[in-house]
Structure formats: structure tokens, C-alpha cells
Amino acid sequence: MTSIAWTRRRTAFARFWQEYRRHRAGVVGALILLVAVVIALVTPFVVDASIMDVTKAVTSDQFHPPSATYPLGTDESGRSILSMVMWGSRISLLVGFLSALLSMVIGTVVGIAAGHFRGWASAVLMRITDWFLVLPSLVLALVLSSILGGSTMTIVVAIGVTSWASTARLIRSQTLAVEARPYIERSKALGAGHWHVMTKHILPNVAPLVLANTTLAVASAIVTESTLAFLGASSGSVSWGSLLRGSYDWGAVNQGAWWYILTPGLCIVAVVLAFTLCGRALEVVLNPRLRGVTR
Questions:
Q1: CA-derived radius of gyration, the chain
Q2: What is the CATH number of the domain that holds 205?
Q3: How far is CA 99 from CA 18, 156, 169, 283, in A?
Q4: How many domains does the chain have?
Q5: Interval 97-155: pLDDT, tens
């Protein structure tokens, strides 16, 4: 039975990849993400962490333009922008992945529960969801990060608990559609409980939507983290957002240090665009009704 299951999984993955690679934009996005993840993983092995220590920086090379020694120039303390960007990718991607995962878990649980249960339970869950929807998520995340402290996990929690409401709405609507199918009624008639219906029937049907939405949530989380870091709610670690904040604080524009602003900004744009391309491609691949859309 185990070999049969693995064979089915390999076959399903082969079909998925065959369909996914037809979407050139999705493949390009996946390649960009692969490069970003590899850079984040290998950075500790190729770049010494002491490069981020301002006390060890070469102060005579402040705002040094791109050159053979500094391919992407230096910052106000003489630190290499290339090295800072490489280290910053670790925090930006980590916060993006973890906060999106937290947001998806909360949104999926609330959405499935609100769609499956009826009456007061569904009403209470949806009123809570509506409350989070009308609140400005960025302001709420800024307040939470300020109250809870400035650690990386605090930023993850602040973004995750303020961005799940739209996912809950989306999953609830899909859950209602699944609940209306005849086999759900047959399952209930045969004695299936709430847990069985939600985990064995509803969750597998909404999982593709959750997967596609997660990639878009990661992109949104990276932008939110960069915004929070730029506004001063930083974890204290180097990230792309904190680099933009540093360029603003030290007047990189007035100094003509365009590389200080452009490099982390382009990194954010490239990774967010890559996640968006992957999310759109996944949405088309996993939704049979969209496979006929012109690519």
C-alpha cells in the first residue's frame, strides 16, 4: 500500500509540474525565488556576520559608489551593501514565510469552522473576521509590534494575526460550496462527525486554494515587514526594510548614494513579484476551471 501511495504521489506531482511549467511567468517567478532562498541559505557560509558590526566597518569608505571592491557600494558606516543585502534576505524571507504560514493557519481554521458550523458559532466567527477586516492591518501590526517588543518573532506574530481575515472569508466561501455537494450529505448520513467532515472532505478540497493564496500572502508579508522596518518597528536585525530605513535616516538621496536605496528596493520588488507570479500560476494549475485561460 505504501508503494502504491508513493507511486500515485509521484504521478500527481509529475502532472502538476507538467502543467506548471507551461506558465512561463510562474517558472520565472520560481527561479527568482530559488535564487533568493539559496542566497539566504548560503550567506552565513560565505559572508562573515561581523560585516554588520558598525564598530568594525571601514569608516573611510562611507557612501562609496559601486566598484570592484564594493560591487553594490557601501552605506554610511562603510559596510558593503552587497553583504548587508545578503544578510537582510534571511530576515525578510523568514518573516515573510512564517507570518504567511501563521496567517494561513488562522484563516483556514476560522474559514472552515465558519463555513461548516451554522448558527451562532458561524455568526461570532464572521463578526470577529469582519472586525479584523475593517481595521487597518498595518497600523494594528505596528501597534502590536511596539507593545510586544521588537524581536523577529514579534514581527511575525504581529503580521500573522492581523492579515488572516481575508483568507478566512475566502476559505469560508469555498467551504460553503463544498458543503453543498451530495457526498457531504451522504457522509453525514452515514454518521461522520464534524472533525471527519472538516479534515477528510473539506480540507482536501480547499487545500489548493490555501496553497495558491499562501504564495500571495508571503509577498504581502514581505512588503509589510519592510514597511514596519522603515517605520521603525524593526526587530533589530538587518533586513531589506531596515536598509531602506537606514538610507532614509542618513540622507542617501542628498549624498547621491542611489545604490543604497535602489538595491534593497529592487530586492523587495523582485521577490514580491516572484511570489505573485508563482501564486497566479498555482491558482491556474490547481483550479481546473482556469486552465483554459490564455497564458
A1: 23
A2: 1.10.3720.10
A3: 30, 5, 18, 21
A4: 1
A5: 999 999 999 999 999 999 888 888 889 999 999 988 888 888 888 888 777 776 788 88
